[in-house]
Structure formats: C-alpha cells, structure tokens
Design goal:
binds 6-O-phosphono-beta-D-glucopyranose; mainly beta; 304 residues; single chain; 8-stranded antiparallel β-sheet; 9-stranded antiparallel β-sheet
C-alpha cells in the first residue's frame, strides 16, 4: 500500500481517540486502536487481530517475537482466522491448511466509536481469482471486532450462491500466559474430543485441562465458556461463544515448536491456543441466501 492509499484510509476511517491506520511490522498495514478501555492492533492482511491489551493488564493475546510479518505469510500469534476450512482441506492436500483467509488481504469497511468508549471495526475479505480458485462458491466473509474492556469477534459468512456449502472455521486465538505449567483450562470437562497427537483417537476430557506435553485436540459439540486460569499472572480469561460447536486446544510443546521456526525456543511455555470454531464433525452447512455468524467474547478478571 502506498502513502496516498494509507492517507485515504485514514481520511475515511480514522477516529481521534479510537483508531488510525499506519504501517506496521514488515510493512503490513495495521489499524491501531487506543481507547479508554484497551489497545489493539489489527493487520489488514488476514483481518488479523495481533494484540489486545485492556488498560492495566498484561497482554491477553500472545504474539510470537519470532513471527514473520510478510505479505502472504500467516502471523504467529494473535487471532488468525481459519476459513473456509479448518486444518487440512478435506479433498485436496495441496490447498493451504486452515484455509486462505488468514493470508489474503481484507478491506476495512467501517469504524465506529461506541457510546461506552469501545471501538467497533468491520472488515471484508477481498475475493480474487486465487481465492475463487480455492473456494468456488459465491460467498462473503466479514469480521466484526469490538475493542473495549471485552474483545468481541464475530465472523460472518454469507452464501450468495444457489447451492449449499460446508464451512469449517476457527478464531485461532493464541493466549498469553505466564507459564504453561501454572495454567489450567476449565469448561470442557466431560466433553468428547478428537486427539490429533500420535494416532488420531476419540477421548473424553476428565477434569480441567492441564498441559505438560504436546496437546492438539478438537473438542466437539460444546458451546460452553472456556476459562483459562493462570496462577502466574493471577488472571482468569473467559472465552464465551455463540454458534461455535467446537473448541480447539493446542500447544505444540518443544519439538514441534522448534520445527515451526517462528516460535522461538521458549515460546511454547508462554502460550496456549483456545480456538472457538466449527470443525470436524461440527462443520456448518450454509444454505443459499443464508448467513452464518460465529461469535467469541473474551474478557479477563483477577484470579483470587
Ligand atoms: C491448530 C491445529 O489449530 O493449529 C494444529 O489443531 C496446528 O494441528 C496448529 O499445528 C497451527 O497451525 P499452523 O498452520 O498455524 O502452523
């Protein structure tokens, strides 16, 4: 994006005391939000929420210090959007894992200062020949974000064609934690999950989730709130969701993180992904003319 385009973006959508657009890491254009409640940075590439930090709090999202910020590369951390499929493509292994939404450009469509001091932003995925070649359906995707004392993220999919399609999706949220050894995740007790570590297996969650080795699980048929309880930061993070029947929990642990090349040696200790989505058994059928909306609301409170 050249200087004139950035200027026109700011003329149309900057709001004093809320949001302005600027050149971010690796030359990516970002919306920089700073209001009375929180600060946040959202890249136009991928409509990728990179940071969210309520005032007086440590960052809530984890963003790798070794991430690659470059056109067409997914950013390691924040909230990558997996869309319109989750994980490997069901029929064609050559297509990118987790879909293409996280690596293509989105346009900023709207910004608004809300009465309670929060900032609302709306982004739309830009279709190109390359996206249509991978996803031959008349559809549109929008991301609606409210940056305030809570972070609200709504992913909206519209079927504008005349045939139904199957949609897989996730808000692949990386949470910053003090140390994975002092953290547990509640809310998924008793849920069935697909365990993707080693031989794929179906299991049932017993008690809260504690992590001491690689974890890669799709919890199924659950719309429950998840709570990340971090004894190090003394903080509880709540992830509430709507129209999301799957929750993915992921930590690559030592060897896998090393192979990924953008985690850093100790990165896995300070993060956990708790992803609100619809994946595997929970993919969604979107009928012609219909819209599907998935919502996640993230908030934090002190842990006594
Ligand atoms: C998780 C998947 O959602 O994302 C894992 O369950 C995967 O299997 C991880 O390794 C990271 O994916 P990527 O494509 O961002 O490296």
């Amino acid at each position: 994006m050249n200087h004139a385009e950035l200027e026109s973006l700011n003329q149309r959508l900057a709001i004093s005391g809320h949001v302005r657009f600027k050149e971010g890491p690796g030359g990516l254009i970002v919306a920089e939000i700073a209001n009375t409640h929180a600060e946040s940075m959202i890249a136009l590439q991928g409509a990728h929420i990179m940071t969210w930090q309520p005032r007086g709090q440590e960052p809530v999202l984890w963003l790798s210090r070794f991430g690659k910020f470059a056109p067409g590369k997914s950013i390691r951390g924040g909230v990558p959007i997996c869309w319109p499929w989750f994980g490997p493509h069901a029929a064609d292994a050559k297509l990118p894992g987790h879909g293409f939404a996280r690596t293509v450009m989105w346009e900023a469509l709207e910004t608004r200062a809300l009465d309670d001091g929060a900032t609302f932003l709306r982004f739309g995925l830009i279709e190109t020949e390359a996206t249509r070649a991978q996803w031959p359906h008349a559809s549109s995707a929008q991301l609606l974000v409210t940056v305030g004392a809570e972070l609200r993220i709504e992913l909206l999919t519209q079927n504008a064609g005349n045939a139904p399609f199957q949609l897989g999706e996730a808000l692949h949220t990386y949470f910053h934690i003090h140390d994975v050894a002092g953290m547990e995740i509640r809310g998924l007790e008793g849920c069935a999950y697909l365990d993707k570590v080693g031989e794929p297996a179906r299991r049932t969650q017993q008690g809260p989730i504690v992590i001491g080795s690689e974890v890669d699980r799709i919890y199924l048929d659950t719309e429950a709130d998840c709570l990340i309880e971090d004894r190090g930061i003394k903080r509880r993070t709540r992830i509430a969701k709507k129209n999301s029947r799957s929750t993915v929990v992921w930590n690559p642990w030592i060897e896998k993180a090393e192979k990924m090349g953008d985690f850093g040696a100790e990165g896995y200790r300070g993060m956990v992904c708790v992803e609100s989505g619809n994946a595997a058994d929970n993919v969604v059928t979107v009928q012609p003319g219909e819209a599907h909306s998935m919502l996640a609301v993230i908030s934090v409170e002190a842990l006594a």
